Request: fold
Amino acid sequence: METTEPLLRLRDIRKSFGAVQALGGVDLDVPAAQVTALCGDNGAGKSVLIKCVAGIHQPDRGQIRWQGREVHIRSPREASALGIETVYQDLALADNLDIVQNMFLGRERLRHWLLDEAEMEQAATATLRELGVTTVRSVRQRAASLSGGQRQSVAVARAVMWHSKLVILDEPTAALGVTQTAMVQDLIRSLRAHGLAVLVISHNLNEVFAIADRIAILHLGRLAVQAPLIEFDRRRVVSYMTSGEAGTEARL
Ligand SMILES: Nc1ncnc2c1ncn2[C@@H]1O[C@H](COP(=O)(O)OP(=O)(O)OP(=O)(O)O)[C@@H](O)[C@H]1O
Reply:
């Protein structure tokens, strides 16, 4: 039995779109300083679930508990204010802005004490370095000129710079080659090492087994299972993804 609540606890989250029930009562725990992989077949409800946490969708029912108390997350801005940052595959950065501008984007409220360009540049550079992101040529590079892996890195660095406690990544390596995938996976480990919780949607089982501490599997809008990685092998994960059950084969 757990004695303390995890950083994020979802209970009985339900969400329908008209007649389509996307989530039928999901319970999920996301602990600090761990990487939780959110898996499931196409249409299982992964995106809808993270959007409920990111403030994009409002659940029809259920409870979101954050650091031990119930919260209602009505917008992405409210999610950010709590310390929840979501990095979407394609929408992570504004192409026409440079890295520094992207890392400070949407934080205008704080402008009065951080307007100084040199200070912003220094903070962005320091955060990227702290996370081991060494591939970026200059923090004054426009986002449009960055590779997919670099874009993910900058988006994640932004989350760290603003003291997020949970970073949600939606298939961060789906469009990346081998080297860039390794870079983003290192970054995810670095987030964990900094004490952040990571919730990562992934279809790639190699990736899940390489980076996750825990696996949560959705099946038809319900949580089929959530447990430490050590309790799974690949066949078991696939079985939960396709049937919602462990299958008949023996464990590990
Ligand atoms: N805005 C919406 N309007 C209507 N139905 C939606 C909407 N968003 C999601 N759905 C439906 O909810 C269900 C869950 O979708 P969701 O995108 O969460 O699946 P997913 O697990 O992320 O799938 P994939 O791996 O293919 O991205 C699907 O049946 C989908 O068609």
